[in-house]
Prior knowledge:
Blueprint: H1 3-8, H2 33-36, H3 41-51, H4 63-93, H5 95-105, E1 127-128, H6 129-137, E2 147-151, H7 155-158, E3 177-179, H8 184-197, E4 201-207, H9 215-223, E5 229-233, H10 251-256, E6 262-264, H11 269-281, E7 287-290, E8 295-296, E9 314-317, E10 325-329, H12 334-346, E11 351-355, H13 359-363, H14 367-373, E12 381-384, H15 393-396, E13 401-403, H16 414-420, E14 433-438, E15 451-457, E16 460-465, E17 483-487
Parallel strand pairs: 2-3, 2-4, 4-5, 5-7, 6-7, 10-11, 10-12, 12-13
Antiparallel strand pairs: 1-8, 9-11, 14-16, 14-17, 15-16
Amino acid sequence: MTLHETQSSDRPCLVITKTNIGYGSPNKQDTAKAHGSPLGEKEIEITKQNLGWEYTEPFTVPEEVKTHFASAIEEKLKVYLSWTGLFEQYKSVYPEEATLLTQIMSGEVPGEFPIDESYFPDLTEKLASRASSQKVINTLDNNYPTLIGGSADLTESNLTDFKNLPSFSPVNRSGRNIHYGVREHGMGAVMNGMAMYGGIIPFGGTFLVFSDYMRPAIRLAAMQNLRVIYVFTHDSIGLGEDGPTHQPVEHIQSLRMIPGLTVIRPADSHETVYAWKSALENTAGPTALILSRQGLPVIKDKTVPASGLEKGAYIVRDCEGTPDVILMGTGSELDIAVKAGEKLTESGKKVRVVSFPSWELFEKQSVEYRNSIFSPEVKMRISVEAGVSFGWSKYTGDEGRQIALDHFGASAPANTLYEKFGITVEKNNGGNTLKRINIPSGSKYEELVGYSRAVRVGNVIEVAGTTSMKDGKVRGLGEPYYQVKIILKRLSRRLLMQVVQ
């Protein structure tokens, strides 16, 4: 099959060309040396002789080559002028359609974002953010006529389809749903191509843990400032029984590390609305939406409406005066932070709870706004996210804490996993006692006998115990160390531990 035949085929074609790396180099052709380093002046000289290249000056362009490419430019100019003339005729016959096409190709959106948080009026409904996302997607087809998307063979799980629109295919180019197949990297590359051409706003979905497969395409989208939207669902141990192979732990932070990529992890259906709005309004680069598999309660009575998401972080619960502690959470863990904040308030603490769905959006805000959220004078700051703690110290500070998951998950129902890994607000039912124990600086740390959780911070061991200490002593460190303070409030197994003074 000739190249011409492949171009006219209605089937995908794979063209394989046999080549020689470093072709013409007498000493380096077909070797790694032709790939990893310059040929060198001597090898260039003998390569030119071997190829019959008579010009000795570097980068010489012969006149016949210049003439050939000049003629090619003339031919392409004729094609361009023919097309622009055709478009002028089109505008005279279809003025509205021509205006729309011009707007779209210039990056303008012909309509406004169609909904706000009132689209989800039932405050008792617990929707997974992937389900909220699907409902939002299905309001966007008219206002965003070139929004087109799909999934890497996980549409039924990612919920990334327009319910009432057809699929894109060779026989229906007006379809808005793309079936990418099981090829995450291929999906990312195709989305980049559509965004690069212009006009199209592509989105694509897969499980968050599979974002690793398409990371090169994500990096290129960020480098090239492409308007691409990733819908990454099943965002934590909350996905449950699929187990640690499918439970993302390090992935949110690894995406946050890509320069130019905006990462947004909404906490409920209301925030999901504004997550999509922010993604569609981001014309300067790609956006990754991080969405849950499990249902999320609506955070009611927010101090600031959910539209605060557009600033990256905003206050959902506040206190009078300067807070004793600032709790910050993302996604499914914001509800945990809110409930823990309520319990701390009952115990007499001044608490501020911050929803922190996007570091990148937050960093774009003024210093004044950022300081209004994280008051510089408040040193006790605690982050809650079901992923690795790496990076959170930027916002918690040296005296703050991170409630995180610095290990892989396990196969169990979501609630069981959150309980097992200590990312919960426990019932006050006589369960575990939380303790803080001073130890001499430099002491060897070992797992404490009889305790389900032990975390060392400087010269302090913080423990969630399943049994009481005998004689106020802790075994397992080689020496008796005495309890400094016991908190009898059995809330977030590690969260309240961090608040003791």
